[in-house]
Write a structure and sequence with these properties.
The complex is a heterodimer. By secondary structure, chain A is mostly helical. Chain A has helices at about 10-20, 25-50, 55-70, 70-85, 90-115, 120-130, 135-165, 175-185, 190-220. In chain A, helix 2 packs antiparallel against helix 7 and helix 8 packs antiparallel against helix 9 (about 190-220). The radius of gyration of chain A is 21 Å and the shape is flat. Chain A starts with 8 loop residues before the first helix and ends with a helix. In chain B, a hairpin with a 2-residue loop joins strand 1 and strand 2 (about 25-35). Chain B starts with a helix and ends with a helix. By secondary structure, chain B is of the alpha/beta class. Chain B is about 40% helix and about 25% strand. In chain B, the strands form 2 sheets. Chain B has a 6-stranded mixed sheet, sandwiched between helices. A 4-stranded antiparallel sheet of chain B has the order 2-1-4-5. The chains are: A mainly alpha, B alpha/beta. The interface of A and B includes residues 122, 127 and 130 of A.
């Protein structure tokens, strides 16, 4: 091995303009998928704690399937498998967003369930005893408190999902890792470029962590 | 208008042969009870005697399995099938809980205005007026913009009282309102309740405060093993208890 190898900062910096073209795709798939996943999570998380078994078990089946299989397999299934059923190709970005949405949705369902169940029984009783309907008790009393408690766990899931999008280079989405691979194929600067790719992921996830910490601190007022 | 509201002497609460089970445990046994408008009733008994369960059935926080409960002309039926009348009852019956159960994410003011706005449909200005008046009355007006977590236990419980009163209830239920308080804060909550009783509010109070019960109550009810064992004026029940269960309970409570 060549022990005199030098880390080439100039090569690393030079790769940045190309790598940055991947960022919009990474963000689109991450946040698009997470937004839909959050909606899925609210719906299935609440179904999961429904008093009706008929509503509970489909939610449980969905959660177990999408939490128990790798997101890589899920996206391969959607991108390569589903077209055979549908008879037409699926856009790679759409497949990526769908995979993140379904995968994060399963985890967020459990976060929502835990958050809602963590609110003391007395809160519900106080709302009902004031004459609020069950829906209003949930909407004005349980949910706002549950949402605040869910923020740290939602932040974790957001970070996990952002990193999961790196797997979607395999279906040819032009996201961050894919752009790195393309660049390395012509420059052979793997060490420099993958370090830059890692730093860019870190920049995205740290920004999210920071934003959530602000949100959490604001949300904690009065608690 | 229904009949009971027109007739001032009609009971505001009627319980007939009410039975409740927690699994195989028979926690309320053939409870018969009538509460007249303006009456202040204290319910005493050992923990686990069913006294909290009794008042929690009246606003439907607990289901019962047989019998009937009528609150101001609205009937609750067994197994929680109150439907519309349950909702009506809850708007007319206020409750104060042992653990206060204030909404921690809302300011003191918003705790009080929430139900008048969402249930009664009052506009914000009207609801705030009511809240201001009630918070003033329980001595919390200078804390209205704070959050419940910033208040002492006694202050929180007084806010909880104001919150319940904001719905202008016909009946107030108190489930051990001072049991979670530090001793030095019990007085301020009892004072607010005493004032309410003097204004003629119908009150059902589950409490261990025997001195307060004796002073404020028109009637004392002793509950044991899910039954009403003895009832009468506080003097009758506390000074000349007829039933040995009552005697045993009082001797244990009054010793301290």
């Amino acid at each position: 091995m060549d022990v005199t190898f030098q880390f080439d900062w100039q090569a690393a910096i030079a790769s940045l303009p190309h790598l940055l073209t991947g960022i919009p795709w990474t963000l689109l798939i991450s946040f698009g998928g997470l937004a839909i996943g959050f909606l899925i999570g609210i719906i299935f998380g609440l179904l999961r704690i429904s008093p009706l078994r008929l509503l509970r078990w489909p939610a449980t089946v969905y959660i177990e399937i999408f939490r128990g299989t790798p997101v890589l397999v899920q996206v391969l299934f959607i991108f390569y498998g589903l077209p055979q059923l549908l008879g037409g190709p699926i856009n790679a970005v759409v497949a990526g967003i769908a995979a993140i949405a379904l995968n994060a949705g399963a985890y967020i369902s459990e976060i929502v369930r835990g958050g809602v169940q963590s609110i003391e029984k007395g809160q519900r009783e106080a709302g009902l005893s004031l004459g609020l309907s069950r829906t209003d008790t949930f909407r004005y009393i349980i949910w706002p408190q549950a949402l605040r408690r869910m923020i740290p766990a939602l932040g974790n899931q957001g970070i996990v999902s952002i990193k999961d999008t790196s797997l979607f280079s395999v279906i040819g989405v032009g996201e961050l890792v894919r752009q790195g691979q393309v660049y390395i194929a012509t420059t052979f600067t793997a060490l420099e470029v993958y370090l830059m790719v890692a730093l860019l992921y870190l920049a995205i996830t740290l920004s999210l962590s920071f934003a959530l910490r602000l949100l959490e601190r604001k949300g904690l007022v009065g608690q | 208008m229904n009949d009971s509201q027109q007739d001032a002497t009609a009971p505001i609460v009627t319980m007939e042969k009410v039975n409740k089970y927690f699994g195989s445990l028979h926690v309320m046994q053939d409870i018969d009870l009538e509460i007249t408008a303006g009456e202040v009733v204290v319910i005493v008994g050992a923990s686990g005697s069913g006294k909290s369960t009794l008042i929690r059935c009246i606003n439907g926080l607990e289901e019962f399995q047989s019998g009937r409960i009528v609150v101001d002309g609205n009937e609750l039926t067994p197994h929680g099938k109150g439907g519309k009348s349950l909702q009506t009852i809850r708007t007319e019956v206020g409750m104060v809980f042992q653990q206060f159960n204030l909404f921690p994410h809302l300011s003191v003011h918003a705790n009080v205005t929430l139900a008048p706005e969402k249930v009664r449909g009052l506009d914000n200005t009207k609801a705030w007026e009511i809240a201001d008046r009630l918070l003033e009355r329980v001595g919390i007006s200078d804390q209205a913009d704070k959050y419940p977590g910033q208040l002492s236990g006694g202050q929180q419980q007084r806010v909880a009282l104001a919150r319940a009163l904001a719905m202008e209830p016909r009946l107030m239920l108190f489930d051990e309102p001072t049991s979670a308080l530090d001793p030095e804060m019990i007085g301020e909550v009892l004072d607010a309740m005493r004032e309410l009783a003097n204004e003629g509010m119908t009150m059902m109070i589950v409490t261990h405060e025997m001195g307060f019960a004796r002073e404020v109550a028109d009637r004392a009810i002793f509950v044991h093993g899910g039954r009403i064992v003895e009832q009468g004026t506080p003097q009758e029940v506390f000074d000349r208890p007829q039933h040995e269960r009552t005697q045993a309970f009082l001797s244990r409570v009054l010793k301290h």
